[in-house]
Amino acid sequence: MSRLIRLYPRPWRDRYEEEFLALLEERPPTMGDLLDTVRGALDAHLNPQGQAEPTPWTHRIPGLLALIAGAMWSVAFIAFVFWHDKAWELAGLIPVSMLLMFLSLPGDYMAAHGRQIAIALGVVGLCIVVANLPYSPSIAIAGVAGYLIALGGLLTLAAIRAEIGPSGRWTLLVLAVLLPAAIGFPVAFGLGNISEDETWLLGVLLPYGFAWVLVGLRLAIRGSATLVDPPLNPIEPEVRAA
Amino acid sequence: MGGRLGRFGETAMWILVALRDGPHNVTRLLDDVRGLDGRVGPGTLYGAVARLERLALIEPTTNGGGRRAYRLTEDAAAAPVAVARGGVPS
Fold it and tell me: What are the chain A neighbours of B54 within 8 Å (beta carbons)?
């Protein structure tokens, strides 16, 4: 019977396992009870009771956007290997996917993981710049400028979102559109210049796309506030004043 | 309410009725609810208990033997009637 208990999610078991097992010891389960327990475990996964309300479907949007963005980014670079002559067309996917990445990123997530995101973006940007430098110094310079803007913007966004209000949220939205433009277009133009010998770039760029897919999956399952939703854990006015 | 208790609504109502006699541990709760409803399994019982706890209609306490039991909260006084009508007390 204890094996069946393992079907329940960890938070549920932490809370109820001991008394649940005591109950089953005192009232040995019938076959119907065992099926009912399995059904209860399924329900505990689908409807966790740790939160006050079920996750609104709008809170799945950021995760789904991030997932799509990561997939788009990855597909663009995989396709780049096989159809290098189409590099310029494929390059168009890059700014679009970066736009989605930035639009999808919930501010509280950004505030919590700003450093990791900044480092990942920095590494990706550096690789693009290094790969472009021999072919097009001007694009490499544009790339550096774009990434400097992006890194500064990320830190600013994290700071804004930590105590973001309605106006700050729209500021975030504007920046989230401008930043991908600043980053994405140099990257996109750069992709068209990269020779097909430089497949080492994929070692960096593909994991970046896959990481976004994983982040998207996690956010979609957990749920997170969108730019137009109230923050999940709003800061109380008296706390803010203090 | 249906959306908040779902298929556990009826069992939740019987739990609230049973707890009007005072705190019960889950074994006694299961016996009482089975006496009232007849076909409740442990998975359904805990699904209803978890929801009632989330809605702050019941709360854990300890009985004489130090074992966890559940009792009605103050907000739950009118709960069985409200649940039976398809709503929860605000």
Answer: 49-50, 52
Instruction: Say yes or no: A24 contacts chain B, CB-CB below 8 A.
Output: yes
**Residue B71 belongs to domain with CATH number:** 1.10.10.10
Do A148 and A140 form a contact (C-beta atoms < 8 A)? no
Nearest to B54 among A33, A39, A49 (CB): A49
- Integer Cα distance of A83 and A203 in angstroms: 18
Partner residue facing B41 (CB), from A19, A36, A47: A36
Q: Which residue has the tokens 């799509």?
A: A68
- What domain range is B79 assigned to? 3-84
Closest CA of chain A from B76, distance in Å = 17
Per-residue pLDDT tens digits of chain A, which is 242 residues long = 667 888 888 788 888 888 898 888 888 888 889 889 988 888 887 777 664 455 677 777 778 888 888 898 888 777 777 776 776 666 667 777 776 776 676 666 666 676 677 777 777 777 766 776 666 666 666 666 666 666 666 666 655 555 555 555 556 555 655 555 556 656 666 666 666 666 666 777 778 788 888 888 877 776 666 544 454 444 344 433 43
CB A63 within 8 Å of CB A219: yes
Q: Residue type for A228, please?
A: V
Q: Which of A16, A17, A45 to mutate to test the interface with B (most CBs of B within 10 A)?
A: A16
Q: Given an 8 Å threshold on Cβ–Cβ distance, is A33 in contact with B43?
A: yes
The verdict on ipTM greater than 0.90 is no
The reply to whether B60 falls in a domain is: yes
pTM given for the model = 0.45
Is the Cβ pair A19, B53 closer than 8 Å? Answer: no
CA dist A23 → A90, A94, B77 (Å) = 61, 57, 27
Residue B89 lies in a domain: no
Domain-embedded: residue B90: no
